[in-house]
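Recall that a protein's primary structure is simply its ordered list of amino acids. Everything else, from secondary elements to tertiary packing, is in principle encoded there. The following example makes that idea concrete.
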Amino acid sequence: MEANKKPLLENLKKIGKGIVPFVNPLEDLSRKKDFDTNSWFVIGHFEAEGHKLNFLFHLMTLHMQDNMSILTSVFSITDETTGFYYGEDKVFPLSLAEISETEFSIKAPNGFMSGDLNQMHVQATMPCGKVDVTLNPVGYALYNGSTGYFPMLNMNIHQYSLPTLATTGTITIEDKTYEINGTSWFDRQWQNQSIDIGGHWSWMDINLDNGDKISLWDTVEDSTGNETAWATILHPDGSQTVTAVEPLSIGQSDYWLSQKSGQKYPTHWMVKIPTLDACLEVTPCPKEQEIVSQHEALHKYEGASSVKGTYRGKETTGYCYVELVGSWK
């Protein structure tokens, strides 16, 4: 069996070229009680009955300015074929959540994630949709920055990704249920942070048809306006490359003003990675994929997107989510 299709746990026994891990996917899956922010994030992309379907489910603990700890539960479904989109952000007191500190098990009133690195189960519901999927991690882990630990804005981030989870189950949109069989991406992140992050960021999980998986960050500091963009690329053989990206502000366009939040988001990007001779056009569909929260600082954009362009001098296609967090006014 090819290594990029073997179970993740088998591949974790060896470390790919260009990786010096500071985090441990096996040991760091459950909640870190010494950090006020713990995040578990799943996004999936599928084709079913002629439809391109995507879902996002994100559970995160956060410490608010009033000393209250909360669990945010973000869930969205996108049908790129019809333009259907619905997303919501539910905020619960941490006392209403059930979070294990020894196992991977997080339960919110509207959904849950549980399991281990052999198999995970994710279920989430909202008024017009539901996701119920089983995830089997295969291939390799992606360690952002080659270590899984990096500074960003006023935070020190711990983050690893499992970009290839073989996924089966169902996605329900209103009264229609689709049987799905495809791939999901899982992110585990933890840090200490204030609700004011001191800037804004863009993040993309770019999945290309040659098998490369790209975790791309672009940050802008409020105080200085300094912009930093970089990417970690996981190759099919398990090796990684960390490289600079042209600042996204140079190639972003087609701004959309949300009437609900007042945020003004770019919705089209030309992503350039010079060392890889890459120029990738990223386009969300539909344009309006904002998550509006009851807390203004938690408004965000999470857009299922298509990718096309050139990579290492060859034509390529792919897909991703675009995440825009912070103040975009």
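The chain has a mean pLDDT of 95. The CA atoms of residues 43 and 54 lie 7 Å apart.
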